[in-house]
From TrEMBL:
Keywords: Lipoprotein, Signal. Residues 1-18 form the signal peptide. InterPro entries: ABC_trans_aux. Residues 50-173 form the ABC-type transport auxiliary lipoprotein component domain. The lineage of its organism: Bacteria, Pseudomonadati, Pseudomonadota, Gammaproteobacteria, Alteromonadales. It comes from Catenovulum sediminis. Pfam families: ABC_trans_aux. Gene3D superfamilies: ABC-type transport auxiliary lipoprotein component. This is ABC-type transport auxiliary lipoprotein family protein.
């Protein structure tokens, strides 16, 4: 009887020890690439008024699972608010690609208005960016941009999201010049 108790305690203890010895995954933090020469640039920056959908105002990276079910990553997070990252990235890209006179004209009209209603990846590796942009009180230009990730993982997801911001900038520049 004692032998059975001791054996049972040893088995339960070994299971508990095995469960507790699993390392906790570390949290990864992500940023969009920062241009290396930004500090050296002398240029007028575009005024950008950015509005994000409420689900994008969290520090977790969002993935669309099936249907309309969003999953927020627990161990993959934005290093700073996504609003700040997108704003910095777009201001830099637009200010670099638009002539200074166009930037001045846009700023005098109150800047560029940008609303992002969807910006996430999905389990099939597709990244989606949906929203609208306008200048002053003009009719908003709607956009739906999609791109397939080139590899699996959150690092490539963030890189693909940055590439979609590049595509958005190209669309805006094409309309304004």
């Amino acid at each position: 009887m004692n032998f059975i108790k001791i054996t049972l305690i040893a088995i339960v203890s070994s299971f508990l020890f095995a469960c507790s010895s699993q390392p906790e995954p570390s949290t990864q933090y992500y940023l969009f690439p920062y241009p290396e020469n930004k500090a050296l640039q002398q240029r007028v920056e575009i005024a950008l008024n950015l509005e994000l959908a409420p689900y994008l105002k969290t520090d977790s990276i969002a993935l669309l699972k099936e249907g309309n079910l969003l999953q927020f990553a627990h161990y993959h997070r934005w290093a700073q608010p996504l609003q700040v990252s997108i704003n910095e990235s777009l201001v830099d890209k637009l200010s670099n690609q638009l002539p200074g006179k166009v930037v001045d004209d846009i700023n005098q009209l109150g800047g560029l208005q940008l609303q992002i209603v969807r910006f996430h990846g999905n389990l099939q590796g597709e990244v989606v960016l949906i929203g609208a942009w306008s200048i002053a009180q003009q009719k908003p230009e709607k956009f739906i941009l999609r791109m397939q990730q080139s590899a699996e993982g959150y690092d490539d997801l963030v890189s693909t999201m940055d590439l979609l911001l590049d595509k958005l900038v190209q669309q805006i520049v094409k309309q304004l010049i």
